[in-house]
Amino acid sequence: MVKSKQRNALSPDWHEGRRLDDVKADMAELLPALAMLDDAVAVTKGPRAPRSRKRGVAEPRAATPDVSSPDALAAEAARPEFVMADFSEPLMTDAERFAAEPPTAPAPAVPEPQAFPAPEIPAPVRAILVRPRRTVGDLFAYFAAMALAAVAGFFSVSGMAEIFPGAPLEVMVLAGTMEVGKLVIAGWLAAHWRDIGWNLRAMLSVLVVGLALINGIGVFGRLVEAHVGVVSQAQSQVTEKIETSEVRINAQVTAVADLDRRIAQIDGAIDEATRRGRVNAAMSLAEQQRKAREALVQQRGNEANTLTTMRTQRAALSGERAHAEAAAGPVRYLATLAGTDTETAVRWLILLMVLCCDPAAIALTIAASGRGNATA
User: Fold this and answer.
1) How would you label 253-288 residue by residue, b for 16+ Cβ within 10 Å and e otherwise?
2) Could you please report the per-residue DSSP string of 73-142?
3) How far is CA 129 from each of CA 142, 184, 229, 283, rounded to the nearest angstrom?
4) H or E element, residue 368
5) What backbone torsions phi and psi does residue 129 show, to the nearest 5 degrees?
6) Is the CB of residue 34 less than 8 Å from the CB of residue 61?
7) 309-344 in b/e burial notation, b at 16+ Cβ within 10 A?
8) What is the pTM of this model?
9) Cα–Cα distances in Å, from 252 out to 265, 302, 311?
10) In angstroms, rounded to a whole number, what is the distance separating the alpha carbons of residues 175 and 52?
11) Gap between the Cα atoms of 61 and 274, Å rounded
12) CA distances (Å), 307 to each of 81, 215, 251, 263, 312, in order?
C-alpha cells in the first residue's frame, strides 16, 4: 500500500485528479513512513547528521540510537524490516489504476419497514336535494302555464257540458277534476323523472296524453258550438225575420191593390154615367159613393204607410244578414286562401287551436317544474 501510494504520489495525473485536501491527507500519511525508512537506512550505514525538521510534521524526530552498544543492536534487530520502494516500475495513471482495481460501490441501504396507521374512511354523505332559486322566467312560465291551463280547462269543461247536456253539472265537475289532475301529474312527472321506474313513467305519460286528448275533445266541441251555433242561429233568425217581413209586405201590397181597384170601380161608374149623358145620374152616384170612396182612399193611405214601414224593416233585416256574413269574412278569406270552403277552414282552425292550447300548458308546466330536479 505504501509503495502504491508513493508511486501514485509521484504521478502528475494523480495531482490533477485529486483535490488539495486529499493530497494533504495522503502526504500526512506518507511522511511517517518515509521517516521510518530513513531510520532503517541510518542503522545500516551508520550515524548521520540530523536532518532539518520537515514541514507538515507535528513532532521532532527521535534521536538516532547508538548501535555500538549490545542493547541498541538487540533493539534494532527486534524492529520490523522495511522494504525499500521500487521506483523502477512504470508509474500508473488514475485511469489505469481504476481500470485495474475498479472501485466498489457501497451496497444500498435497505430501509427498515415502517408501520403506518390505517387510513380513516369518511362516513358516506347522503346527497341532499338542492332546489335552485326561481328566476323571473320560471315565474312567467308558471303564470303562462296556469293561464293556458285555465282557459283550456274552461273551454273543455263547457264543451263537455255541451256534448253531454243531460247532466251538465256532473260532467263539468268531472272535467274540471281531470284538468287539475292532468297538470299535477305533468309537474310531478317532470320533477321526479329520474327517481321513478320506467313502468311508472310510461303509465303517467299515457295518463297525461289521455287527459290531454279528453281536454282537446272538450275544447273542440266548445269551439264548434261557438262557431256553428251562434252563426247559424244569427243567420236563421235574420232569415226568418226577412221571410216574415216578405209575407207581410206581400199581403199589404195585395190590400193596397184591392183598395186601388175599389176606388177605380167607383170612379169608373161615375165616368160611365157621365159619358152616357146622364149627368144627373152621374152626380147623384158620385154623391152616394163619395163617402165610401173617401173611406177607401183613407184606408189605402194607411195601408200604403204600413207597406212602407214593412219594406224599411226588411231593409234593416237585410243589413243584419250582411253584418252576420261579414263577421265570417276572415274565415272566408282564409278559406279562399286555402282553396277550400268556409266550414272546412273553420274546422282546421279549431283543430289547430286544440293542438296548441292544452299541449302548450302541459309543456310550460313541465319546463317550470323540471328545473327543480337537481341534486348536489
Assistant:
1) eebbeebeebbeebeeebeebeeeeeeeebeebbee
2) HHHHHHSPP-PPP-TTSPP--HHHHHHHSPPPPPPPPPPPP---PPPPPPPPPPP-B-PPPP-HHHHHHH
3) 21, 20, 53, 118
4) helix 342-370
5) -75, 120
6) no
7) ebeebbeebeebbeebeeebeebeebbeeeeeebee
8) 0.45
9) 20, 10, 10
10) 133
11) 207
12) 176, 53, 9, 18, 9
Backbone φ, ψ for residue 30 (5° rounding): -80, -30
Give the contacts of 357 (CB within 8 A, at least 6 positions apart): 148, 151, 152, 155, 219
What is the secondary structure of 275-313 as a DSSP string? HTT-HHHHHHHHHHHHHHHHHHHHHHHHHHHHHHHHHHH
Q: Give average pLDDT by consecutive 10-residue segment, the chain, 376 residues.
A: 46 53 70 68 52 46 52 62 52 61 62 70 62 70 82 85 84 87 86 86 89 86 76 67 74 75 70 63 63 71 76 73 64 74 79 82 77 45
Q: What is the sign, positive or negative, of the torsion defined by CA atoms of 184, 186, 187, 193?
A: positive
Pair 162, 343: CB distance under 8 Å: no
Q: How many Cβ atoms from other residues are within 10 Å of residue 59's Cβ?
A: 6
Q: Quick check: helix, strand or coil at residue 375?
A: strand
Q: State the residue for C-alpha cell 508511486.
A: 7
